[in-house]
Design a protein that fits this description.
This protein has about 220 residues and is mainly β.
Length: about 220
């Protein structure tokens, strides 16, 4: 990237905007005033129109009014807000919610989650120390994503996803095949589930077949 990127490890910017969403877009004019904001994926036409408006107000020339609508796929598709009952959740001890220890995973309530296996629970992530560790969650959303990464650079960690105890089939996300197989190769957002209606409470499970994975967050759409 040839432009500066703010690193906000201490959440100073996050808290400064009183932000509760990811992704979140804040549109700031040339005088430093927030003129508009959008939360979540989608509304790309509105975002582009606002950028054009603020650039023209700032005296930037050559700004057209044509709108280029992206071909949104995978994680770029707007959330299914009508069926979304699960909030974003961080897995590290500092900000997690709904974590349940020493409970049968079959008895999880909506938006509760747990781990099985040998994990280290850190402030910002949980790290798997031995192969075949699992993360289990009960959720209500069309899409389920996780922010994952290998603990060591260059490492690949295989995983297997299940929904209500079965391979996801047609409900698999773009980073998983129909049998639920996938691999964590870099630190990023992975789309694991995209299901069709009707949307109901579902049990999600991801088993990591190798050690050395870090899990940072759940997001839903």
């Amino acid at each position: 990237m040839d432009y500066p990127v703010a690193v906000d490890n201490d959440y100073a910017i996050w808290h400064g905007f009183d932000n509760e969403y990811w992704p979140a877009l804040y549109f700031i004019d040339a005088k430093g005033a927030i003129r508009h904001h959008q939360f979540g994926e989608g509304e790309y036409d509105e975002a582009e129109a606002m950028i054009q408006k603020l650039l023209i107000e700032a005296g930037v020339g050559g700004i057209g009014r044509d709108v280029l609508t992206p071909d949104a796929r995978g994680i770029e598709v707007a959330a299914d807000w009508d069926d979304l009952r699960s909030p974003e959740n961080y897995l590290g001890s500092e900000r997690t919610e709904g974590f349940v220890s020493k409970r049968d995973a079959a008895k999880l309530g909506l938006n509760e989650w747990t781990v099985a296996g040998t994990w280290t629970i850190g402030r910002h992530a949980v790290t798997l120390n031995e192969a075949n560790g699992r993360i289990v969650s009960r959720f209500h959303a069309r899409d389920l994503h996780m922010v994952l990464g290998p603990a060591a650079k260059g490492k690949s960690v295989r995983f297997r996803v299940r929904i209500d105890g079965q391979a996801p089939g047609s409900a698999h996300g773009i980073d998983v095949d129909e049998q639920g197989q996938g691999a964590v190769t870099e630190q990023r957002l992975y789309q694991l589930i995209r299901q069709s209606r009707p949307i109901a409470d579902r049990q999600f499970e991801i088993e990591f077949l190798d050690s050395g994975v870090e899990a940072f967050a759940f997001t839903f759409g």
